[in-house]
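pasting for the record
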Amino acid sequence: MAKILLLSPPFGRVYGEIGFKTKRIGVPPIGLAGLASFLKEKEHKVRLIDLTYFDGGWNEFEDILVNEKPAFVGLTCTTPQVRNTYLIAGLIKRKLPHVRVVVGGPHVSALPEQTLRECSDIDMVVCGVGEETMAEIASGRELIEIDGLAFRKDDKIVNTEKRRGIKDLDALPFPLYEQLPLKYYGHPIMGRSMGLMSGRGCPYECTFCASNVVHSRGYHTRSAANMIEEIELLRKHYGFNVFSFWDDTFTFRKDRIFEFCNLVLQKDLRINWSCSTRVDSCSKEMLQIMKKAGCSMLFIGFESGNEDVLKRSKKRITLDQSEYFCRLAAEEQIPICGYFILGLPYDTKSTIVQTIEFAIKLKIDFAQFAVLMPLPGTATWEMGAKGEGLKILSSNWDEFGRYQRPVIELPDMSADQLFKYYKKAYLKFYVRPSYFWQRVCRMNSLSDLKWLARNTRLFIDFYHGN
């Protein structure tokens, strides 16, 4: 049995300078919490800390390290967390030189050798899914015999065989919720809520998405009954009645969604939930039963308002499909939050204007615009490295943040010009009399008015702060 400390680093400059509780509301590290439960089932002693909402400070965190003396410290790492991951690894090694620091997640899975070269304080990189790999590390198995691992040996970096994904997700334990600061979790639109993963991987191959970096092309889902069991646990023990499914395409396996919705109705759960899906993945009948079962928000990646850009991005949808889907959702009165990317390969000033105008044309409830972030492991990352359709301007991970100045430029647009279009997109979408009236007409309570006032202020602060 090993003593293991699992950490989710703060997001640093993406949401503010390094520090704890840098966001007022955010998402739990569900993947890391699931790993914690898996290791606990293997009889290891596990402590899980979400450093984004850690109630203490750096001094208290250092005290935990010294007092607990874990044999292994595991960190999860997306690209926006790289800087803080390296800083924390260094702090750990200064306090406990003999502890083994293990890092996993999409960023390091895409760049295992570069990660080990950049940070000498990291001992091992878990590539791909982490449960079985980390359990074998903690059991003391020889590293060379463990699949899905990169580590140093004799001044060289060794990569072991690729780890296969876990197919039977129902066999995995639920995340270690009791060790998470649940009061901080939620969504700006959904309010206090809990995020859930009902599947792993994605069957699509969009050029800008890093989903398949960890799960490759595999796509596996939990059963409807297993999903319901977790929801009932969260309601009974933690008081959650609002949930967000984070799967990239929640509705891909349609029979499972009908079964899930029917179970929600049969059990009279009376929950509200949101999900991410695609415009080509929901029928009218599916939207109808989803609405009855409590679906109160759809998050949709429309990405672009130009057919050619969509095609080159391998999104595999059309503008007509997007418009038709929005009409169906409006008929069922399910709000939509749309995602749009500015600066996709082969975007031009003209196509970006089309994207902004298309977002307005769809008459969706919310829109989130972002300048393309070329994430390691994606096709856009490879294109940027070769200068095909875009150019990556920085190798400094501190600058790879979603809500800051772009790290790319296009053949006919500089980073500064892209950033101006980014701000213009928010201004044109939200600062419209018709949009304000739309929001007012859909208010049902005083809390809705307070929500509108609060988020209007946040928008103003965001716009003028950049």
